[in-house]
Specification:
The protein is mainly α. The chain is built from 3 helices and no strands.
Length: about 60
């Protein structure tokens, strides 16, 4: 390869030249992440203590 070809740099394409704004690019990445991420399993419910010795929760205080 001749030295003149090796020394030439290729022109860079600016983001604006592609026609996509940074805002649109970030929005598309966020949307792709949401679509490609599987849903999480629901948290298992913890049994609530209903014995009189259990500390009162905010719901019990309001009802009293």
């Amino acid at each position: 390869m001749p030295a003149s070809e090796r020394d030439e740099t290729r022109p860079r394409v600016a983001a604006g030249a592609a026609g996509v704004s940074m805002r649109d690019l970030l929005a598309s990445c966020a949307a792709a992440k949401l679509v490609s991420t599987p849903p999480r399993d629901p948290e298992p419910e913890t049994p609530r203590a209903t014995s009189p010795a259990a500390p009162a929760t905010e719901e019990h205080r309001r009802a009293a």
